[in-house]
Design brief:
heterodimer; A: 580 residues; alpha/beta; Rossmann fold; 7-stranded mixed sheet; 22 strands; B: 190 residues; Pyruvate-ferredoxin Oxidoreductase, domain 3; 6-stranded mixed sheet; 8 helices; globular
Chain lengths: 580, 190
Amino acid sequence: MKNLLSGNEAIARGAYEAGVTVATAYPGTPSTEIVETVAKYPEIYSEWAPNEKVALEVGIGASIAGARVLVAMKHVGVNVAADPLFTFSYTGVNGGLVLISAGDPGMHSSQNEQDNRYYAKFAKVPMLEPSSSQEAKDMVKAAYLLSETFDTPVMVRTTTRIAHSQTPVDTEKRQECQLKEYVKNPKKYVMIPAYGRMRHKVVEERRMALEKESDASPWNRIEWGDKKIGIITSGINYQYVKEAAGSASILKLGMINPLPKKVITEFVSQVDEVYVVEELEPFIEEQVKSWGLSVIGKDVFPRTGEFSPELIAEKLLGQTGAEEAAAAAEQPIPVRPPVLCPGCPHRGMYYVINKLKLKVTGDIGCYTLGALPPLEAMDSCICMGASIGTALGMEKARGKEFGQKLVAIIGDSTFMHSGITGLLDVVYNKGTTTTIILDNRTTAMTGHQDNPGTGYTVNKEETVEVDLLNLVKALGIKRVIEVDPYDLDKVEEILKEETVADEPSVIIAKRPCALLDKSVQPPMAIDQDKCTGCKRCMKLGCPAIVLDGEEITINYTQCNGCELCIQVCRFDAIGKAGDK
Amino acid sequence: MIKPVDILIVGVGGQGTVLASKILAQVGLEIGVDVKVSEIHGMAQRGGSVVTQVRFGQKVHSPIIKKGGADIILAFEKLEALRWLDYLSGDGQIIVNDQQIDPMPVIMGAVQYPQGILDTINNSAANTLVIDALTLAKEAGNIKTANVVLLAILARQLDVPKEVWLKALENIVPAKFFEVNRKAFELGYK
């Protein structure tokens, strides 16, 4: 029987079958489950690196040392890893290295929807793109051969709908792979200018050889159909095209960098009208047009968001593709944005920040949800680790007084990822910024992965736990305070003190994520006789506290018993459900 | 082999839709159909509107279902049932858990939770089934098994032996929670 695997699980399986012995990643939706799955194979050393740059560097070391290596990250993670990637393209590999880049068109869980296909072209490395989990597994295996044959890292690109769709996969046995011999070779691996210049020539020769390879690649195939319409597509859009316009002629691209020029030219010459169906940027379209071929792409298809079979049917055939539906609701349907969970330790911090009317430079993690109503406690959020540098910049631009009404907020995992250097700048350049590290003992948003601060590895083995307090002190911060974010009075007292201090300070708000604490606390209830309806408790933005007509009530299926609302109520109207 | 069927499982992040879809997909695999499942992880899961799309068929291409294409919608929450109603096919069936979870705009008083959702759905859909899954889950011994109660209601609609469902349940639920989940399944399946 086949196994039903997500794209991510299939990639992990492919790496396993290909004899990979080292795998490294930093968690990021939609890539996280790759190394989570790989970590279950005892044959493979797996790790969560502190960030994507380190992940790739560990991978490069393992490759030079002769192992087959898997490195995985989300699309914006490749920005972080871009520095080693571009030069690694010059050195090439010893053991094969495959870098997974998981994109997120539609931004289900990302801050931008950049198109990472350009990275492959920019770094001059081959890129494969699967259309199903079976292909994801098979392509990863093929990518190791490509990597070792052409002496190059290989990128495999997925998007959310591939990474998180589960489709049937045939699994095979693992091929054990001997470590390649390690030979010191500075002209290949030491990229000083003299050697780099030599390697650049090698890269250009490789690029031309890869163009030939792409034309011969079985991953680029034509499915002839009606020759009035030809469609060039790849990835998940191949499936949408099959569904929406299955009778058309289709050129399905699996090797998308370099593009198979001969195959595409031949295809275009055989059909009346050619469409390029690609999400996001006109990556394929612009290259094909640059060869003097006539194709239709972004004139018709959007450059933003995800596609769907309906969208493709509408743009190609002028029909909606939607079937006769049950009547849609006529009344307006309230949106349901994500929220901080009931009992979330971040909630109390935002409550106090709002009370003190502080400005907040934010960061990437669950706590970014503090930006949404009703908390709306965030002024900026750019990328992993940006909160601290951004806060310093604001202070430098507008002066110390402004800085005293400003805090940077960053999670524990994000601080380890790239917050440390920002804090170093605060100290070095005499900022007075207050940084709040929300230490919930995990990487929560991506599904609770460990990090250097948790004391556990990806395999849940015990390891050294970073001493956050002393790390911050060692950077030169003299004012470091730990606080329990459930203790609202204490949080308020500390925040008042630290924001006005004439030197930089760090507040470590330490409490595990509410989803990690499996102990069951009794839910809260509101004594309606005592409740005055002041709605102070509702300023917490807790999804369990709701307005039921005129009454404020607590939804017992949602409440996790954190008792923050008890602290906030001035009328002693809230207590444990049994007591009130 | 059952006929091709497209199923949407909709609800609120945290209600256990992902587990239910996992079991459903496993069942599809057991009975030898082509299966595709699409879901979204990450930020949307935190109390947001969530949807999992499950497609069974001889050959399934797209993992996502078209508007008007769903044969069955399994809705864990009333407002989410309403939100996805236009995905239901003209002769489709919708199973609605009679539970209300207020989204933040409603909690804040910016908008009202729509009144009479069940009537609206009943009037639009060819076939509506309303279930109080929380009560049955409580009866099973843990309100968190409401997802399995709802899955069992869905199971009743599909032409697949009960044993196949129970086997998939046992494969996917952690051993120490199997008994309470089995009980929840039985209560829903009755």
